[in-house]
Amino acid sequence: MTDQHPSAPARPKSGAFAGGVEHVTEPHHDHFVVVGNHLAQHPELSLTAIGLAVHIQSLPARTPIGIKALTAKFPEGEMRIAAALRELEAHGYLARTKERLQSGRVVTRTISYNKPVRAVARAAAEPVPRPASPPASPAPRAAVDLLIGLRAYDSRLLLAERDVHRLAPAVSAWLDRGVPPTAVQRTLTNGLPGDPIRNPAALLAHRLTALLPPALPTPGSPPPTARPDPLQTCDGCDRAFRSPQPGRCRDCRPVAAVA
After folding, report:
1. 39 vs 46: CA distance, rounded Å
2. What pLDDT sits at residue 171?
3. CB 146 within 8 A of CB 159
4. Is 243 within a domain?
5. Is the pLDDT of residue 119 over 50?
6. Which of 133, 177, 196, 245 has the most CB atoms in a 10 Å sphere around its CB?
């Protein structure tokens, strides 16, 4: 009896090569990453962006993925890698925000999504037509993304679509006051109760209302610059000097006082 090779490609039944790709599939037990066809076969992303997304999703957490770090790994230049990162960000596979540390240094926080967050948010934000009233306008896009992404921090914060639309204006109020999205996420997810959360929308609504920070003060206009005193001609030596009033310079004042 001959040995069987289940992974070997099957021969075409017709006996002739029909063209196209043939797959030899081997199971992976370690050192692999699961990639959805929505990314691998994305109709709008470039091949560079798709490959970069797969590479980023395979990296351990906290691995640097800045343009300089990626350029040091791959032959693509900075411009191509930067363009690919912008593609992934536009289609929801990456989210990059600026965050200021307590030391004052500004760092970029990058979150990689294995599903297109913005595509989900776009579908959720589309208003449902109602025959009795005009359709509601879509909620702010950044607020919708933030609320949908809360379930990644705690699965108990899974929100219904109607709750996302209802809470989005409250999140936008925080963002309009200059609060970074990462700070809003921390406020909504830190210190959650240990018991099951029966109404996550009510909990988030309470925190968004009760903990709303004040708006940043408007910077005042700079004080007017003091103009120098006008030039005067000394009555004693005809030398020019600055003074609000005509008279004598500082060298001639003692002489005039003695006289």
Report:
1. 10
2. 92
3. no
4. no
5. no
6. 177
Query: Among all chains, which residue has been given the structure tokens 């830190």?
Result: 190
Report yes or no: 150 and 185 within 8 Å, Cβ to Cβ. Answer: yes
What angle, 0 to 180 degrees and rounded to 10, lies between the N-to-C axes of helices 141-153 and 181-189? 40
SS3 state at 95: strand
| Domain encompassing residue 147 | 116-127+137-190+200-211
Neighbouring residues of 203: CB distance < 8 A, sequence distance ≥ 6: 192, 197
| DSSP character string of 105-144 | -EEEEEEE-SS-HHHHHHHHHSPPP-SSSPPPPPPPHHHH
Identify whether 101 is part of a domain.
Answer: yes
Question: Do 44 and 105 fall within a single domain?
Answer: yes
Residue pair 248/236 in contact by the 8 Å Cβ criterion: yes
> For the segment 19-69, what is each residue's pLDDT rounded down to a tens digit?
888 889 899 888 889 999 999 999 999 999 999 999 999 999 889 888 889
In a domain, residue 144? The reply is yes
Q: Which two tokens stand for residue 119?
A: 């595509």
Helix (H) or strand (E) holding 98: strand 94-100
Give the tokens for residue 252.
């001639």
Q: Taking 60 as the threshold, does the pLDDT of residue 118 lie above it?
A: no
Element (H, E) at 106: strand 106-112
In a domain? residue 69: yes
